[in-house]
Design goal:
- It is a single chain.
- With 271 residues, the protein is of the alpha/beta class.
- The protein has a single domain, classed as Rossmann fold, CATH 3.40.50.
- The protein has seven helices and eleven strands.
- The strands form two sheets. The chain has a nine-stranded mixed β-sheet. Strands 4-5 form a two-stranded antiparallel sheet.
- Strand 1 and strand 2 form a beta hairpin.
Length: 271
Amino acid sequence: MVENNLRNIFPKTQVFYYDKEDTLLLSGNSLELISRIKAKSINCIFADPPYFLSNGGITNSGGKQVSVNKGDWDSGITSSEKHKFNRTWIRKCKRVLTDDGTIWISGTLHNIYSIGMALEQEGFKIINNITWQKKNPPPNLACRSFTHSTETILWAKKDQKGNKHFFNYELMKEINNGKQMKDVWDGSLTPKSEKAFGKHPTQKPLYLIERIILASTKENDVVLDPFMGSGTTGVVCKQLSRKFIGIEKDISFIELSKNRIEITTQEIRLV
């Protein structure tokens, strides 16, 4: 049974960066903070973990050459270190997830294969392998490979006998004009309008997270984003009447998330 009061999911001594009835934002290390969350208290997790692709290379942004480096949190590490990190945070997420809950994890070729293996090793069963196809990807400046235009989103549940997860099949079919929705989703990159309060290097568009939340949660469910970034998951949860817990170590990004969520709250009240 998931708590109605989000605060009850944490020890009474827990300090929050932003504390509202349906939204909690925490500043700090995800591995430490997930460990403080009450077991089996989260209905759904969306995670966009470090891709570990910051290696000094270049890419294209707005027609200009820019560094691929995202920040110290994304610096390249050895494959064994990467896999150990992925197994650790996924194991911690499993403990807080309800038995009928699910986890979504996005990534690229830089980390997604480790994540897929880590999920299986930590007792998860992969439900779907979603391919997000970007309509307007940046061009490949090196011209030595195909243009990178997709990301993978793995959807998984606890691998337990008789364990049933929630899937809003009929709504997904309705959104897809009466036909079963496939596991290839296409759409544009995050528009400038969604970056009005600031930019995050791996910010996901609202429409992508909205589909994920609608597909796998109900109203008032609790959603956790352990690598919150710019708070897109929190904005969507606010719009769709879900409860949200976000964790982020960079203060500038957690402040950005707070501002976006507060504006969304004001807009909802005006409707």
